[in-house]
Amino acid sequence: MSKFKIVTYNSSVGSGDAELELSILNRHMDGEFAHVHVETGNEAAFYKEAADADGICAWTSMALGEYEKLKKCKIIVAPAIGADRFDLRGATECGIAIANVPDYCGEDVAFHTVAMMLDCVKKITFLDRTVREGNWNDKLCGKSFRMTGKTYGLASFGRIPQRVVEMMRPFGVNFMAYDPFIPESVFRDRHVDRAETLEALFEKSDFISVHTPYMPATHHIIGEKQINRMKDGGILVITGRGGVVDEAAILKALNDGKLANVGTDVIEDEIHNTSVLMGHPKVIMTPHCGYYSEDASADLKTQVFEQIVETVRDHKPPKHLLNKDVLGKARFENK
Fold first, then answer.
1. What residues contact residue 100 under an 8 Å CB cut-off, 6+ apart?
2. Nearest Cα to 215, choosing from 240, 234, 194, 190?
3. 215 falls in which pLDDT band (50, 70, 90)?
4. What are the φ and ψ backbone dihedral angles of 70, each rounded to 5 degrees?
5. What is the pLDDT at residue 89?
6. Which residues are designated catalytic?
7. Average pLDDT over residues 156-165
8. Whole-angstrom Cα distance, residue 120 to residue 90?
């Protein structure tokens, strides 16, 4: 009988032959483990397997009622940067550590942001569509401006937007960012002006990318009030989370000419995959794939399983523990 049981669900992590994941378990657990992967959508099978699991990697909503079904679980790792699907308080009450992988795809999301911004500035996707429709007409692009000397604004200034600044600097733009939680030294060291409010950021920026994580406090934190402060013909790119920017306000701004183009990798309703922005000719949209590259996928799988091993076998808190209140009453602390 295996000493440890690891269950993966609703994620690419642990799926297929799981060669990388199993190599980590074999290297650290000497074969004393059982790994079970449950296919996406089979929630009943997941909870059946998870009932006696020591470690779990899953991308599914969980609250106290779900945690109580996990009789042996010591750790759940969200295979993502965010972990908004997990009720941290409920997990803490049950002694289960919740972790995420906050840095596995930063390079990829930053690159996706830059690619979307350049596409919007030069209207590449828009013009490609017109050519495919049989319209070979360079006048259809409307007004277009150089980025050099303009102001690039960033809503939030964590690791990913900081990398965006590094990638965009050769284009000769000036930078401004809004983030009340980042020390002044970070802005100063990266030669980025600090906006004291979101309204100030929108008022002074020609281009803005939004990187703000979603939580109740950030729901529609950017709406008509902020967007209307922007110069006419501004460009907005969103690669953080859906729901941070009010899509109805974006639609109105596009139709009124306040925004020239919008690029987004996220939408507010990613359960039903619907958005008022879908199909708009001035919007380029990708299906929340900015995180993906083969390199990022390998990093994700490695970090997920290394945190599970660290917690389940070594009784140590995971590197990216989210519910730090669990320390002192966590199941993994019981040797």
1. 77, 78, 80, 81, 82, 83, 320, 322
2. 240
3. confident
4. -95, 85
5. 96
6. 241, 270, 288
7. 97
8. 43
Asked if residue 148 lies in contact with residue 171, where contact means CB atoms within 8 angstroms, the answer is: yes
**pLDDT exceeds cutoff 70 at 1:** no
For residue 144, the SS3 value is coil
Compare 181 and 83 and report the one with higher pLDDT: 181
What is the rounded average pLDDT of the residues 161-173? 98
H-run or E-run covering 8: strand 4-9
Can you say whether the dihedral through the CA atoms of 38, 42, 43, 49 is positive or negative? negative
Q: Which residue's structure tokens are 């190599």? A: 23
Cβ atoms of 291 and 70 closer than 8 Å: no
* Nearest residue to 4 via CA among 23, 30, 43: 30
Which tokens hold the place of 318?
A: 């995971």
| 259-271 pLDDT per residue, tens | 999 999 999 999 8
Token digits for 45?
């099978």
The closest alpha carbon to 63, from 88, 40, 43, belongs to: 88
Q: Does the pTM of the predicted model rise above 0.90?
A: no
- The three-state secondary structure class of 59 is coil
